[in-house]
Structures are given as C-alpha cells and as structure tokens.
Amino acid sequence: MNKQSLNKLSLFLTGIEQRLIDNWEFFKSITVVYKSGTKEFPAKILQDDAKLKMSFNGNTETLESNWLSLRIVKIAQNYDSLVITYEERGSTIIIEADDKNVKMKTRDVKEQKEAIQAHNEVPQISNRDYYIKVGQADELLKEIGILGSNGKIKNDMIRKYNQIDHFVELIDDMLRESFKEHESLTILDCGCGKSYLTFVLNYYIKEVLKKPCYFIGLDYSNTVIEASRRIAENLGYRNMEFKVTDIRNYQASEKIHMVISLHACNTATDEAIALAVNNNVKAMVMVPCCQQEILKQYSYPPFEQIIKHGILKARMADVITDGIRALILEALGYKVSVVEYISPIETPKNLMLRAIKTQPSDSRALAEYKKLKEILGINPTLEKLIYLK
C-alpha cells in the first residue's frame, strides 16, 4: 500500500485505539485480513488481561493497546489492501484500505430477525413491540434460558420473557431522562439471585441505549453468585461483578447511580432502599416480596372488625408497608411512583416502587409519616436504617 493510504489508515486506527481504551470492558475482537493479489492473510487480535494478543502467520505476539495502529500499519506496508473489523458489544466498525482509498463504516447490532413471525404463527408471544427483541438479543436470551435452539421463546419461559421485558419498559424513561447527562451508569442489584434482570439491563443499556454501564450484583448465596459469574463469562459481559455478601454489610467503593431489587423478602427490601439512600443514589427500582414486619406491629381500632380476618389484615399490612416506604422516600426528596409490575393473576407480589431524587427533604411528608407511625403503632426498620430525623 502506498504512503498516502498508510497515513490515512494510521489516523483511523488512532481513533480505534482510543475507542478500545475507552470501551475496554465491551471490546470483543479485531480481525484484519491483509490481501496480496487474490490471496488473503488473516490476523486476529483478542484481549489478554490488560493487553492485546495478535495472531498472524502462525505467530502470536502481545501488544499494548497504543501499539495497535503502529503494528497493523507496519504489516500493511507489504500488502495491496486490507479489511479491518473491530467488534465490541453492540457495534462493529469496518475499515477498508487500498492504494486508492481508505474508508470506514459503523454497523450496529443486526436488526431483528424474522424469529417473531405473525401473531398466529407464534401465538405465545403477545402482539407488542418488545424492548428485548428476539433476533437482536438471541445470545442473551439463550444464555439465560429463555430462548430455545430453534430461535423461539420456550413455552415454559413465555411468562418470564414478558416479565423481564415489561420491567425494562417500566424503567426506560427513567434510564433515558434521569441519566441523559451521565456518560456512564453504575447499577447495583441487591439480592440479585440468578441476575436475569441485571443481564437484561446490561444488554439494554449498552447495546440499545448505547451508554457505557457497570453492574454489581449482591447476594448471600454463593451458589447463585457463582451461577451469575458463569453467565457473565459466557456472554463476555466483563462490565459486571458479583459479590457474596449481606446487603447490610456492603460498602460502596464507587459512585452508584441506581439500585434495583426484585422480590427481596421482608425487610431486605428496606435494606436495599437504605443502601441507596445512605449512598446518595439518584434512582431506585424496588419490587418488594413478602411483608411481615408491619403485619406483626400495626393496629387500627376503626378497622378492627375488618382486619380481624387474617387474610385482610395481611393484605392491609402489604399496602401499609409499601405506602410507608413511599412516604419516607418522599420525605427524603424523592419523586415516587408505585405501579403494577405484572398481573396479580401471576403473583400477588406485583407492585413496583420507582423513586428518583429530585429535591431536598420534604418536611410536610416527614410530618405525615410521623403522624401515621403514631396512629398505627409501627416502628419500621427502614427508618432505623436511614437514620430518619
């Protein structure tokens, strides 16, 4: 290749070097196909810890990230043309160079396949525009066990697929609007379990919203944490870490932007909320599970003839528990919404609490909380965990 093309190629590759450094956690590989006449000579470049490993012509060498341009261009001097394919999660960059021209184009992840056909052909999938699309998200959906080898949602995972997609739908505006000024997001999942939602959000934020992100999953079960680590490794999701720990014992060492928690039992949801509040986290999304603490505490004489029935007292306790959580968060300056996450036919534990920090503390809401606390005779764990004044 001539000197003019090599200089232009070097300029393009300098940009690739910087992108590689910036997106190191999302980098997959670089393939270079050198051409001489009709013959092709492929080279492959992969990650090797903090460096790159390049295999070419039967030899393997280790490169620093900032040596990439120099090495590729030096080899290109001996060939007529080349095609470079740079791949990272969510996008691909292709550079084509010869003596006449050097051009670069970007290609996003493949468009949705025809895996979802007409509604009458795949009747198990509702007729809606999914956020996590079959076709685009096949690798993810297969790894978490939702998609079968035939490219269709497994019959016994239809409900799970709809649940995780609806979760993304319910927080999409929060991700887009509340964090549009943030270059990167760090999200903490409390009581992550097998981390299905964490993997789905990782995919959606990075590959659909095109925003860098980092995820931390917490759970006290070593078994589920190891399972999550294996899935992350299989997917190549290096922007994740999983810790075996109790929520109360976790100390954040970095800025957390959002805390999520799905079906953390009893006061574990309060622990997740408190972790968010005490670390000045801007947003949180909670889907509570069983509510036992307030059930054992509250009484309300005007309702005695109603709550004498155990099932009604328990349901009232659920409402009081989530209502008190929302009121405490409002007192702390959060804008709170409580919505139905999934149909109550599927589970009675179907409420989602969304909260975004928008203002200083609200003394009016605090006074309302203290009044209710006295009337009901309750002493919520959440208040003690956040040291509410």
UniProtKB/TrEMBL annotation:
GO BP terms, alphabetized: methylation
Keywords, in A-Z order: Methyltransferase, Transferase
Record flagged with keyword Methyltransferase: yes
Residue ranges of every copy of the Methyltransferase domain listed in the record: 159-296
Matches recorded under SUPFAM superfamilies: S-adenosyl-L-methionine-dependent methyltransferases (SSF53335)
Gene Ontology CC: cytoplasm
One Pfam entry name: Methyltransf_32
Molecular function terms, GO-annotated: methyltransferase activity
This protein's record includes keyword Nucleotide-binding: no
UniProt-listed InterPro entries: Methyltranfer_dom, SAM-dependent_MTases_sf
The protein, known as: SAM-dependent methyltransferase
Source organism of the structure: Acetivibrio mesophilus
Lineage: Bacteria, Bacillati, Bacillota, Clostridia, Eubacteriales
